[in-house]
Amino acid sequence: MNFPTLTSRSTRAITRAEVLVMVVVVIFFAVVVMTMMVSFHGAQSEVHCVRNLGWIASSFASFANDHDGHHPFTATNSLAYTNETQAWLHFQDAKTYLHSAENLVCPEDTRRFTNAAADFNTGAVASASSLWKKTNAAVSYFVSLDANRHTSDAILAGDRHVARGWSGRGPIVTLASTNFPAWTTPHGRSNGIVVLVDHSTTEVSPSASRTPPVSYSMPTNRLLMPLPPF
Question: Is residue 212 helix, strand or coil?
């Protein structure tokens, strides 16, 4: 009986061009995945900032309820009242109502986020990681000096990276109702995240077709920026 002869099938080597195509495909998918991860991280950071500003608005409202309607700047027994150039003092005054000192920094604000304060301890019990020692260098948000509980649609606090739309120099700048501010954030957003007195958070665009920067009931809004002490 004759059996069929088994013949070996020759294998073809992968060409250099095919290897190059596979490398390009792998790199493409890697870039897509990394882009998605960066976008997700950016979205999560923005959510974190919105939550922080919500805590700030709530803490200021609670402070006002316990101080005859005054925010820290206008409460005569507050630290902020005696030194209007230090933004961190407003948050130090509201420490009883803030959830954590870490809520004063935004993940997008990488320089401040890595320097977040651990607590609000003062005096002899204040460690190097307390807000009392870190001061403005552990704060990502500005605070309004003119907003009050009667101006519900005015900006109360927001992202410190305001690039234009204001006048003045130093820690206190004036945002006019006819100007629309622009932001330059580490992630390139031109819209700024702010919280209003009524606790609503919103993005402010430099376009005049979007939300006005200040309440129409206020001619100006002085913003106290958390300029670092160095």
Answer: coil
For β-strands 172-176 and 220-224, DSSP reports them as antiparallel
CA angle 112, 185, 109 (to 5 degrees): 15
Q: What would the pLDDT profile of 95-123 be if each residue is shown by its tens digit?
A: 999 989 999 998 888 888 889 999 999 98
Residue 217 placed within a domain: yes
The answer for residues whose C-beta is within 8 angstroms of residue 116's C-beta and 6 or more apart is 101, 102, 104, 105, 138
| Other Cβ atoms within 10 Å of 34 Cβ, number | 10
Is residue 218 domain-resident?
A: yes
Residue in the block written with tokens 């009667």: 150
Q: What are the DSSP E strand ranges found in 58-214?
A: 141-144, 155-159, 162-164, 172-176, 182-183, 192-196, 201-204
Q: Which domain holds residue 203?
A: 16-224
CB contact at 8 A, 77 and 162 = no
Cα–Cα nearest to 184, from 154, 207, 161: 161
Distance CA 96, CA 108 (A): 26
What's the total number of domains in the chain? 1
Does residue 66 have a pLDDT over 50? Answer: yes
Q: Quick check: is 95 in a domain?
A: yes
